[in-house]
Structure formats: C-alpha cells, structure tokens
Records
---
Amino acid sequence: MGASAFIFDLDGVIVDTAKYHYLAWKKLANELGFEFTKEQNELFKGVSRKRCLEILLDIGGITATQEQFDRWMVEKNEDYLEYIEKMDASEILLDVPKVIGFLKDRNIPIALGSASKNARPILEKVKLLPSFDAIVDGNDVSKAKPDPEVFLIAARKLNVAPENCVVFEDAVAGIQAANNADMISIGIGDAQILSEADYNFNDFTEMSLAFLESLTSVQA
Ligand code: G6P
Ligand code: MG
C-alpha cells in the first residue's frame, strides 16, 4: 500500500511566515540592544517560541528573570500577531493549492503538523482551514520537533499508520521528526540543508502530480 495520508508543516511550507517571525524577533532584539540577522533567523525554523527566545537571549548574551522571559514571550507574540493580521490567501506559497487539490480530489486525508500556537488563525486567514481533516499544532504537543510527537498525533487523528504518511517540511528538525516517526519525509527548500529528507524540492512548483501519484501507488 502506498502513502495514504499527507501531513503539512505550516511556516515555510504553506505560507512564508518566517519573515514575520523574523521582524518580531528582530524588534525585541533591538529593544534589548543587539542585532538579530536573517541568517540567525534560520536557526528558529521549526523551533518553539520558548526555545527561540532562549536562543535569542543567548545571542544577545542576556540573562533574563522568569518574569522578563514571560513578558518578552508575550511581547514577541503580540508583535507577530500584528504583522500577520492582514495576511490573506495571496500569501499561500506557490502551487500549494495544486498539491492540496490533487489530494482532495482523491479523498486522501491531509493534516497540519506545526509547532506554531498560531496555526489555526493563520489557516483561517488564508482560507485553508476547511481543507484540513486534522490540525495538530503547538497547543497539542509537549515535545518539540525533532521529537515525532506532532506527526504521530496527526497520523492517529487521521487513523493512518505512520509508515503510510508523507510529511512536507522546511526545517531540519521537522525532517528529523518525520524520519523519527517512520514517515516519508519530503524537504521543501534547500536540499543541502534538508539532506536527511527522503525527497527534496525547492518548492511545490518543482513537484509534479506524477510524483505525488507515484507516492500514493507505491507498494510498501
Ligand atoms: C514554527 C516556526 C517557528 C516558530 C514556531 C512557533 O515552527 O517555524 O519559527 O517559532 O512555529 O510559532 P508560534 O506562532 O507559536 O510562536
Ligand atoms: Mg516550517
């Protein structure tokens, strides 16, 4: 039996929210008196908000009290929510609708598997919430990627065995989480960075429907 369910990461796979996360983290870093570069922002992909703040404070050489830490978490998220407020369907990444449409036409279930606690409002803004048969996000997990928890919960919600699930991911930790879940991992982005993935594509424009068809009909 081939792949019978597909799980999508959100940030960097369905929408490019990394730029908004970057702006919000950069604003906080600047307020705290240091710079935060786009290159450093790469380290934040797929990483929980709490862990991102820990890394940011490390970069700035700042030791925070618990109270400051909690306040900065809230502040960053409030700024991020302002940046994403006006997001709409025009921000869906190229050919994502092509892939979702292909799967929906074949009644293949799809789930979201994201570390973000803002996943639902973002899917609502870009009008993709109704397309998903299951949503697993940062509010549902206790262990962050590369732990497979987020994807295993998604597979369970779809009632599909992990080895029959395909995961689309743009983060190294996400590819590792998919591999740890025993799922088929597909890297969306730089193949050198995502070298642990089973398959690699720069973006969905490079992914043919014939490729998707081959995944769903492969004999396991
Ligand atoms: C995704 C992004 C990360 C972000 C995390 C938490 O995994 O790639 O950069 O830190 O979600 O997002 P949140 O919206 O909960 O702050
Ligand atoms: Mg991502």
---
Amino acid sequence: MSPSSTTVSRIITKEELCLLQKVPASCGLIIFGASGDLTHRKLLPSLFSLAQENLLPKQFYILGVARSPMSDAAFQARALESLGSAGTPAARQEFARHCGYLSGDYQDPSTYEALNQRLTGLDRVYETAGRRIFYLSTPPTLYGAIAHALGRAGLNHSRSASAQATADTRLRDARRDLPAAASGEGGWVRVVVEKPFGSNLRTAEQLNQALHQVFREQQIYRIDHYLGKETVQNILMFRFANAIYEPVWNRKYIDHIQITAAEAAGVEHRAGYYEEAGALRDMFQNHLFQLLSLVAMEPPSSFSAEAVRDEKAKALASLSFPKDCDWEDCAVRGQYEAGAVAEEVVPGYRQEPGVSPASRTETYAALKIEIDNWRWQGVPFYLRSGKRLTARTTDIRVVFKHVPTSIFRPLLADQISPNVLHFRIQPNEGIALQFEAKHPGPKLCMSSVTMHFDYEDAFGIHPPEAYARLFHDVMVDDQTLFARQDWLAHSWRFLDPILERWAEAKERGLAFYPAGSWGPTEADELIQKDGRQWLTD
Ligand code: NDP
Ligand code: BG6
C-alpha cells in the first residue's frame, strides 16, 4: 500500500499506520548559525539519521550560513565529523555532498542577496520548487533581525503556489484527514526558531511580532526538542489510547506529581548564554512546562496540531501557586559549588570559564505549583531541574493517594505505599507502575513491587534522536509538536514575576549545593514540609 493512496474510506490498522511515515517532498534546509555547537552535535546527526531511515527526500540540500569564513568543502568535512561512525562511509559521503556553506554577516543585506542567488541555483539543481526551511540557530537576540532580513529580501515566501499549499493544509486539518501525499506539493517557506523564545513575556511578544511581520503563524515552528523525544510523545498515547487511566487521572485519585530533569553535566561551554538564562529560563519555561502540559491537559478532540495545542495552552493558563504558599515559599533556586560527579572532581559554577565569580545565576530550581482547574485543584506539582546533580535523569512520577482505609491492621492506610506511575523519559526509557504485593512469608507480609515497560526491550531499538522527528514534522507541515504563541505567553506570564523577584532579591535566597548532590536542602524542605519526598531510583 502506498501512503499516497491512503484515504479514510476504510478501516486502517495500527500496523499500517506505523508504516505511514511520509517521505517529504524535495526541499532545502538553510541553517543560520551553522558553524555552532547545535548544528554540529545535534542537527546534522539527526538529519543523517533521517536519511538512513529513508525519511529525507532524495532531493535535499543543507546550506549552512554563518559569519565564520568556511568553504563548502570545509563545511562538508565538519559535517562528516559530526556524523562520527554512524551509517556506512559511502552513506556519510553522500550526505555530506548535499551540504554547502555561505559565509556572511546576519544583519548585512548583501548576505541575503548572496543567499537569494545561491538558493535559486540550489532549488534548480534539487528541483525543490522553492520549498525551503530556514532554521534559526544563532544567539536568540539575532532571530528578529534575521527574520526581518529574510522578509526584506523576499525570502519569506515561495514564488510558486505557497498560498495554495497552505489552503490545502488547512482543509486537511479541518477534515482531520490522513496526511496527503507530499509529492506534487507547491512551494513553501517555513521557519524553525530555536529556544529560548524570548527571555520574558515582553521579549517573547516582541519576537513573535518580528516573526509575524514576515511570516504567517502557519509557517512558524517554535522548536522544543523535548517534544521530539519518543517517551515524551508517549505520554499522549499512554493517556489517551488506554481506557483505564483517564478515570483516575484527577484530584480524586492523584496525591501529587513530580517532574524532574536532572543533569550531571555542568554549564559546559555555554556560559555566555547560561549566565543570562539560568535554570528557570533554560529548562522550566520550555521543557518542564511542556511535560507538565502533556500530563495535565484535557483530552483533545483529535490528534491534530490545533486541538492538541489548544488543550496544552489551557492547562498552562491555569498555572498558579498553591494557596498555602506564595512564590517565596514555593520557588527554590540554587547554584552548584565544587564537588564530585561520578567520582570526578568538578569546579563550582562560579569557577567555570566565562562565568562571573560573583554570578547569581541559578543552576537549579524547584517549584511547587498547581493547575487551578476542576481536574487538578489542590494537587501539587513539584518540578525540579538542575545541572551538576547526581545523575542525568528526566522523569515524571504520578503518585496516587493512599488507600482510604486499611483492612491489614495493625498496618494503617498511610503505612501502605501508594501506587506510583513512573514515566522514565531518559535514560532507560520506559514506564513503570509500583504497587503493593504479598511478600512470601507471614500472612501480613507486604512489599512494593514494580511492573516495567522498557522501550528498548519492547521495540528492540534505541529511541531515535528527538531532532530527527521534529525535522520530519517541519518537512511534512505538522505543527503538533511545536510550541504555539499562546502557550509560550502563559509560560512566561507565570515565570516573569518569579524571575523579577529573584533579580530584586540578588543573592538572598540563592542556596548552594555541592556538585554531585541532588540539589540544595531547601528543595528537600519544599516537599518535606508537605509530608512528601522527592522520589529517585
Ligand atoms: P553557538 O553559541 O554555538 O552559536 C551558533 C553560531 O552563532 C556560532 O557558531 C556563531 O557563528 C554565531 N554566533 C555566536 N555568537 C554570536 C554573536 N555574538 N553574534 C553573532 N553571531 C554569533 O550556539 P549553539 O549552536 O549552541 O545554539 C544555537 C541556538 O540553539 C541558540 O539559540 C541556543 O540557545 C539553542 N540551543 C542550543 C542547544 C545546544 O545544546 N547547543 C540546545 C538547545 C537550544 P559565526 O560566528 O560563524 O557567525
Ligand atoms: C537544552 C538546554 O535545551 O536542553 C541545556 O539549553 C540542557 O542546558 C539540554 O542541557 C538538556 O537536553 P537533554 O535532551 O540532554 O535532556
């Protein structure tokens, strides 16, 4: 069966749907900031993995744009370096042949004249009909200026049939149809914007305005690589493709939810960016709040981009601090000091290259928050993320309530461990359910045991690289896994007051923790004063 011939006129099996990965139409990808770390470490390897799965069009080119002088050959050599030993040497060479480079200043109109000329030639060679993706991977302060320059050079739209392509897409979404065939598409231009999207609500709105002066919302893909992780997408499948969880997914049965994104790595070479950002902007505003939205959202009316994003935005619009505490009691920030991670002695944040010796940037944050709606009112969500913690682990734990009463006297209800549903986002991707079981031995012997679903065991493969999935979605025009403007606004609206108060408080309230620990003791107290504790493996 060819995907292009599929319609919804007959019942389609789950197995057939798995095969329905469409090969996108020929197109070109233009990466601004291509000399940088992200392109090298993530973007090029992900694109190569797509090519390996035959999910990249045969007619596809990558054009890197950045200020550093570099020839096409030098960029191709870097691309080969990025791919390491993935695939075969022949496949790597073939991939590198599709890569080119243009050097120029991001704000200089002559860069865009040269770009225009180069793209016209590439589009002809690769027969792309003007289908182009511009990927903004420079420092974020340049995104608005690059968008503006693209608009001024007329590169924000395709000369052929972009209006028709958009109308077709809208119609398709409205019908909730299966994806149409990629071949035969007209031209289009899409822009992918890397995080961070603004540094507060005001700058996020400014960036939105700058983008909207040049691009329509339908063309804009605000990327958050967490949404490309298979285990993150699986939250939706788990919740809405299984009937048994939804009835208990609420304040009546759930005691609280914990979301942890812990990193063993420090700030690495990104001090310039991180000093201005800190953990709240770097991890909460995007990745952690995305996880929160997926866990907390109402069932969408369909699996279409707008229906899913409507519900995620609504969940975030209800964010609040619990009534029993305000921002000061429910928001902890910390910074790592020297310590040892996996037996390696590492410096404190203030001693890292490029970091001010008096830096007040938080490398750790923990929040206790609530989603103030009918489903979640009164259920605390504890979120934490930090660098230089004991281990790299990202997970979500849904902790259910204790049994209402105990028949196993003298054990009391609160001595019987509650069920915990554990989404292991990374590493050891999977899901586990903890429950109570009869332990061999005397009549009243009970233990907590765990039922495991392990991603690799079940499917026999490593979860693919998040960026690969997201690239594919941009090419096939699916915005489901990309942040929408209103979601971002809700997220910043909640975080702005905390960030402002932390800035005003200067060092007051900044807690220090040794590298290699689980964070400051203040974060433990945040949850312990509610009679709970952070759960770790
Ligand atoms: P880099 O700091 O490596 O910058 C990318 C490129 O931008 C550089 O190679 C440089 O190219 C150019 N650049 C750097 N500083 C300036 C400057 N002051 N003025 C003009 N151009 C500059 O960034 P990354 O590749 O690490 O990240 C790119 C984007 O992706 C950033 O917005 C980052 O926040 C985001 N991101 C990065 C992640 C990562 O793991 N690296 C993860 C998630 C998001 P040249 O000098 O050649 O012009
Ligand atoms: C990035 C942050 O968005 O996510 C980094 O800027 C962080 O600071 C990274 O290290 C974590 O991503 P992952 O996929 O390794 O969990």
